[in-house]
Design brief:
By secondary structure, this protein is of the alpha/beta class. It has helices spanning 18-29, 61-67, 88-108, 146-160, 186-195, 212-225, 241-252, 263-280, 288-294, 303-309, 316-330, and strands spanning 9-13, 33-38, 52-55, 73-76, 113-117, 167-173, 175-177, 201-202, 206-211, 230-234, 237-240, 259-260, 332-335, 338-341. The strands form 4 sheets. Strands 3-2-1-4-5-6-10 form a 7-stranded parallel β-sheet, with helices on both faces. A 3-stranded mixed β-sheet has the order 7-9-11. It has a two-stranded parallel sheet with strand order 8-12. The chain is globular.
């Protein structure tokens, strides 16, 4: 893509991810010049019309010092979202050390502002369904799962251990759903597995979901309106897993899932199941961590984001429909009243 004549020049890391590819589309439509830092093996076809591609890795500090120059702001979305066993070293290297490298590159090259996409999982859970708001401090020992711990560490560095010369703003999205899920996220996998008939039972619990398009809008607003060294929860709507599956069944004219698995049983079997799936080199539908998350406090407050960023969320059922429509078109083929997995080259 040729450089555009614009007042704002942005760099986006993680641009081929679910949030990232939606973000660069929106930035492009707003008329900005967008550069995307991608790895050599990334599929850039989904973003190529909207960005200038720059190859690099956030774990390569010297490369970042070379390329992170002349930007009005950097949107940092690159990271490993991994809830399976055996990924601790990779999670720390990318999510923590990679973030440190990028911050250092921004400070050396005098970038004005960095917007970091963290996660609600970086925030300590409150008991008895108390309202969860943006914290001032982060303690990795008080969050569940190693992914959450690395996000808590990285978030603390971004907000509390960064030079005053670099403005930093953090956003905390909840569970992401919506279209343009080209890499098939964990939640996207649930939708496709249901359509393929692999989900024959459901678990107790629920979660807070937010549309990827609303999150991208929130990130852009954070770059413009967000206060330096502050964070904003970008949450959407809470829904029970049974209600979610029932709605998918109604929308796709399929039978509702009626079998409910005992929480204690599935939780006790989860580590064994993860180990088996790891040997098979397949992604498990549920892990010990994801099961516990579905039964945790997901009462997140987005009041601050609404008040200061003008954050808005669309109806959750619209998001569910759009998620299903994208998954069925991109990953599946409908044969009669059934779906089959599409072969994607």
């Amino acid at each position: 893509m040729k450089p555009r004549s614009t007042d704002m020049k942005y760099l986006v890391t993680g641009a081929t991810g679910h949030i990232g590819n939606v973000l660069v589309r929106k930035l492009y439509k707003l008329g900005h010049e967008v550069h995307a830092l991608v790895m050599q093996n990334d599929d850039i076809s989904i973003i190529e019309p909207f960005v200038t591609v720059i190859y690099g890795d956030i774990t390569d500090k010297n490369r970042l010092f070379e390329v992170v120059k002349g930007y009005d702001a950097v949107f940092h979305l690159a990271g490993i979202v991994e809830i399976r066993l055996g990924k601790k070293k990779l999670l720390y290297k990318v999510n923590v050390e990679g973030t440190k490298n990028l911050l250092e590159a921004c400070q050396i090259n005098k970038v004005k502002r960095l917007v970091y996409t963290s996660s609600v999982h970086a925030i300590e859970e409150k008991k008895n369904n108390q309202l969860i708001e943006e914290p001032l401090e982060f303690n990795p020992k008080k969050v569940k799962g190693y992914y959450a711990k690395t996000k808590a560490i990285a978030t603390d560095i971004v907000l509390n251990q960064t030079s005053k010369d670099l403005e930093t703003v953090v956003v905390y999205p909840s569970g992401i759903i919506g279209p343009y899920d080209y890499k098939l996220s964990n939640f996207g996998q649930v939708f496709t597995d249901y359509l393929l008939g692999r989900l024959t039972a459901y678990l107790k619990g629920g979660y807070n979901f937010v549309d990827v398009r609303d999150v991208a809008d929130g990130i852009i607003s954070a770059a413009i309106k967000g206060k330096d060294k502050e964070g904003y929860i970008l949450s959407g709507h809470s829904i029970k897993i049974k209600e979610l599956l029932d709605y998918i069944a109604e929308y796709t004219h399929r039978k509702k899932v009626k079998t409910k698995l005992a929480y204690w049983f599935i939780l006790s079997m989860s580590y064994f199941a993860e180990f088996i799936f790891m040997i098979m080199r397949r992604r498990p539908l549920f892990t010990h961590y994801s099961i516990s998350v579905l039964n945790s406090n997901h009462n997140f407050s987005n009041i601050k984001a609404k008040r200061e960023l003008g954050f808005k969320t669309r109806d959750i059922y619209t998001s569910i429909k759009d998620t299903i429509d994208f998954a069925s078109q991109h990953y599946l083929v409908k044969v009669g009243n059934k779906y089959r997995k599409k072969i994607i080259n």
